[in-house]
Write a structure and sequence with these properties.
Layout lengths: L15 H25 L11 E12 L15 E10 L14 E8 L5 E8 L9 H17 L4 H11 L6 H12 L10 E2 L3 E4 L2 E9 L12 H11 L2 E9 L21 E8 L28 E2 L1 H21 L10
Antiparallel strand pairs: 1-2, 1-9, 2-3, 3-4, 5-7, 6-7, 6-10, 7-8, 8-9
């Protein structure tokens, strides 16, 4: 295996202007979460991204017996316990029959005592619509304000959205949009899932990809997603291969250019995720809305890498602190999700 590029904290550094915009964005996140119950018409505070929980379930990661020797220190056990959250990326929860096909597959990896090793929020679209921290912060702030203030903030949102367009005109982005359109009606578990940004693997850097084994693309066509998932897990196990790519050079595997896919870095199979038949618990509990999948809570050798990723640290903290402050009052009560 060629020598991977080493992690450097300079990949994560934000400029002063970006730090100021982040503070503005954090305020909009806190305000959004405080108003989220009325925005989504539910009786609890939601996340300000991936608000809709389809299911939270337990799973297992089985380490590949043929994993490269260099990776063994990070995967030193035969298996690891997982908590998995399946979600939709929209900020607002809609009670529609069909959601847009923007899905999340967040994974919490635990040690033998139940302690946290790593959080990996994976999504079914491998690229990010902008490489500019400033543009992203302005866009996300405008989006939060739009949901809170509606049409009075539409003009600001439209301006920021227009600035993103040049970044989604890459061949990689267009190719993946076409793939998503073709699969728009497919079942949530039939998608591949990706880390989008990079993560540390000790001194090195990686991206993660999860590829399911044979999954019916059209189960429970007339069912809402929660019901379709419940029906699926009553009758099937779910298994998926887990691959990583390592960063060898910034030209072919850029850390802070998220609108293109990495190339010339082979996929290395590190193991398999499995969710056993019948493992799906009830999603309608307040406990699930208290869970956090913040990747910055991970062990240091699995932390996120990159400027866009760095924004998650403060954004996740503000979101979860505000959400927990509200939802702890509801803990133990039945809430409708």
């Amino acid at each position: 295996m060629p020598q991977p590029l080493k992690y450097n904290k300079k990949f994560d550094e934000l400029h002063e202007e970006e730090k100021k915009l982040l503070e503005i964005n954090k305020k909009s996140i806190a305000d959004f979460v405080e108003q989220s119950s009325s925005i989504s018409d539910v009786n609890y505070a939601t996340r300000n991204a991936h608000a809709k929980t389809y299911a939270v379930t337990e799973g297992t990661f089985f380490t590949d017996k043929n994993i490269p020797e260099e990776l063994l220190p990070f995967f030193d056990r035969e298996k690891f316990d997982l908590t998995i959250r399946l979600s939709n990326a929209q900020l607002k929860i809609k009670n529609s029959q069909r959601d847009i096909p923007a899905y999340g597959f967040a994974v919490k990896i635990k040690d033998e005592k139940g302690g946290l090793i790593a959080n990996f929020p994976l999504v079914n679209f491998p690229l990010f619509p902008t490489n500019s921290v400033s543009h992203f912060l302005k866009l996300f702030t405008a989006l939060n304000l739009f949901y809170m203030n509606k049409w009075s903030s539409f003009f600001s949102l439209a301006i920021q959205a227009m600035k993103v367009i040049p970044n989604i005109c890459t061949l990689s982005f267009i190719r993946n949009i076409v793939r998503l359109i073709k699969k728009r009606n497919d079942f949530i578990l039939s998608f591949d899932y990706h880390s989008v940004g990079a993560y540390r693997l000790g001194d090195y850097m990686m991206k993660i990809k999860l590829v399911p084994h044979s999954v019916d693309k059209k189960p429970g066509r007339k069912l809402k997603m929660k019901a379709a998932l419940k029906s699926y897990f009553q009758n099937h196990d779910y298994t998926a291969d887990v691959f990583i790519q390592l960063c060898y050079d910034l030209k072919n595997q850029p850390i802070n250019k998220l609108n293109v896919e990495w190339k010339d870095s082979p996929f290395i199979r590190i193991g398999e995720v499995k969710i056993n038949k019948g493992a799906l618990p009830d999603a309608n509990t307040c406990h699930n809305e208290l869970l956090s999948f913040n990747p910055f809570e991970s062990k240091i050798f699995f932390q996120p890498v990159g400027k866009i990723q760095k924004l998650r640290d403060e954004a996740y903290k503000v979101s979860v602190q505000t959400r927990r402050k509200i939802n702890k009052l509801l803990h133990g009560k039945s809430i409708e999700l």
